[in-house]
Design goal:
The protein is of the alpha+beta class and 106 residues long. 52% of the residues lie in helices and 18% in strands. It is built from four helices and three strands, in the order αββαβαα. The protein starts with a helix and ends with a helix. Bound molecules: zinc ion (ZN).
Amino acid sequence: MTASRSAREKKAATEAGPLAKVKIDLDENQQFVYKISCAVCLAKGHRNWSAYRPGGDNGFMAAMDRWTFHLNEKHPGSDAPCLAFLPAAQQRLHERRLAQEADPTA
Ligand SMILES: [Zn+2]
């Protein structure tokens, strides 16, 4: 468990790029909780920007999508591998919104 957690943390940090601080915690159900915070927005003393999502691969994907949007919006020139997945992240967001419109209780 611990080994796979740190391996995931390392992989996520690589994908998220040099501005990201990635941390994976365990919640009370021993589920992964992904937290990606921004080193720049932190250093400037603004509100501590971070994406925080529980869950397995879905949580990882959701946190990474949020982070990718943050990078694209605030730090568009940064050198982060996850920016290559921006179109896919936007497509997922679009699909989530469509699904919510179709069924607001989901
Ligand atoms: Zn930032």
